[in-house]
Design goal:
There is one protein chain. With about 425 residues, the protein is an alpha/beta fold. The chain has 3 domains: about 100 residues, Rossmann fold (3-Layer(aba) Sandwich), CATH 3.40.50; about 240 residues, tm_1862 like domain (pyruvate-formate lyase- activating enzyme, Alpha-Beta Horseshoe), CATH 3.80.30.20; about 60 residues, Nucleic acid-binding proteins (OB fold (Dihydrolipoamide Acetyltransferase, E2P)). Helices cover about 35% and strands about 20% of the residues. A 5-stranded parallel β-sheet has the order 2-1-3-4-5, sandwiched between helices. Strands 13-14-15-17-16 form a 5-stranded mixed β-barrel. The radius of gyration is 20 Å and the shape is globular. The chain starts with a strand and ends with a strand. The model has no long low-confidence stretch (mean pLDDT about 90). Catalyzes the methylthiolation of N6-threonylcarbamoyladenosine (t(6)A), leading to the formation of 2-methylthio-N6-threonylcarbamoyladenosine (ms(2)t(6)A) at position 37 in tRNAs that read codons beginning with adenine. It is an enzyme of class 2 (transferase).
């Protein structure tokens, strides 16, 4: 699992967010190290209350970028309010909202899922792990050693768990698993039961929304029409699909043992485009895999331009002990940094364009968490993040659903005014 180093600056809110990041990382089997020199990922949780603080954050980000052999993630207030400053200073970092950090640290691996011991977070978000394990054998992923092959409870069992979450007050149900797309493969002759499960969960009485967690393209591809139809027919479902492609090169995907081809990923995207007018495609790219040639990297850039995901996680390849890819001769650190920067620059362009298209539209937003000062943060029907300033003064609270007009954006999230 990954070794991480995290530094936090600023207010109590930032420190609380760091605690939640660390809790998720440790539950996933990752462990802290004392300094960035030994870290697979360094995390900087920033503050921007004063100009002097801003300069200190830029300085520290540059230092961490130079000191850590792995990825750098910048989160917190300055990252979200002034993320462009880090790019202007040529800091090679992922700029992320704090709750995106644990997924990024996975570095392309399947997520490790908690057992739901704290089933309703903040009194709003219910966590529903629908299965454990996956059907993949990716050459770079260590998670498989901990989770094994897919083990799927029945649809009835998962529906009852979802019903219990709704009765406990959950306004949002997050369906999770190492790979939700292959849910049921072990009991249904290799065909996903995810569409049936989602249909059944959406039939539960109550007002709630459902977000589907990571689903690899191979599992989704075989049921893509049925799954897209379920999304189109159920308003409870966020129109959001996280299908990590990892590379735009079939040669690299074969070396990664990813099981899907680029064309299958594209067919999934095209199918959802046919069924849904407004939806979010989320995907992941690993850059700098040991066998990735310059032409393979260009294919990843081309695929990103072709499918235009609205949410993109870019990570540099990092060796995991005990995996086949750990024995491969790696690319140089500078090569990985350069390719990561190219992918990240394109990512920011695409994500910014998607949020710019939202400006002037009206969206229904479920508020799920506190923001900075008196703002609240929520998600629209496509699971795009929307911030409402002065929300508490307006009488709004976490758990409310509110219609807003999107007035502006900050590249990675939008701002809304209640209508």
């Amino acid at each position: 699992m990954a070794r991480y180093h995290i530094e936090t600056y600023g207010c109590t809110s930032n420190r609380g967010e760091t605690q939640q990041i660390e809790q998720a990382l440790r539950e996933g089997g990752h462990h802290p190290v004392d300094g960035p020199e030994a870290a697979d990922v360094a995390i900087l949780n920033t503050c921007t209350v004063l100009e002097k603080t801003e300069q200190n954050m830029l300085r520290r980000a540059k230092e961490l970028d130079a000191e850590t052999p792995g990825d750098l993630v910048v989160t917190g207030c300055m990252a979200l309010a002034q993320g462009d400053l880090f790019r202007e200073e040529d800091v090679d970092a992922e700029i992320l909202h704090w709750d995106e950090v644990p997924d990024h640290v996975l570095n392309g691996e399947c997520p490790t899922v908690t057992d739901g011991t704290d089933p309703v977070l903040n009194g709003v978000v219910g966590i529903l792990p629908i299965a454990r394990g996956c059907m993949s054998d990716c050459s770079y992923c260590i998670t498989k050693q901990a989770t094994g092959r897919i083990d799927s409870p029945t649809v009835d069992e998962n529906v009852e768990k979802a019903r219990a979450l709704v009765h406990a007050g959950a306004k949002e149900i997050r369906i999770t698993g190492q790979d939700t797309g292959v849910y049921g493969w072990d009991v249904n002759q290799g065909e996903s039961l995810l569409p049936e499960l989602l249909d059944r969960v959406c039939d539960i009485d109550g007002e709630f929304r459902v977000r589907v967690g990571m689903a690899n393209p191979k599992g989704v591809h075989g049921v893509r029409d049925e799954l897209a139809r379920v999304f189109a027919e159920n308003d409870e479902l966020y129109n959001f699909l996280h299908a990590p492609v990892q590379s735009g090169s079939d040669d690299v995907l074969a070396d990664m043992r990813r099981q899907h081809a680029v064309a299958e990923y594209v067919e999934v995207v095209e199918t959802f485009d046919e069924y849904l007018d407004y939806w979010t495609l989320s995907t992941d790219f690993i850059c700098g895999f040991p066998t990735e040639e310059p032409a393979d990297h260009e294919r990843s850039l081309a695929l990103m331009r072709e499918t235009r995901p609205e949410k993109i996680n870019v990570t540099r390849f990092s060796k995991r002990p005990g995996t086949d890819a750990a024995d491969m001769k790696g690319l140089g650190g500078q090569v990985k940094k350069d390719r990561s920067k190219e992918l990240t620059d394109l990512k920011m362009d695409l994500v910014g364009e998607a949020h710019e298209e939202m400006v002037g539209t009206e969206q229904s937003v479920l508020l799920t968490e506190d923001g900075t000062e008196e703002s609240l943060v929520g998600y629209d029907e496509a699971y795009r993040q929307v911030v409402i300033a002065d929300a508490e003064q307006r009488g709004l609270a976490v758990g409310d659903t509110v219609d807003v007009e999107i007035t502006s954006h900050n590249t990675v999230y939008a701002f809304g005014e209640p209508v």
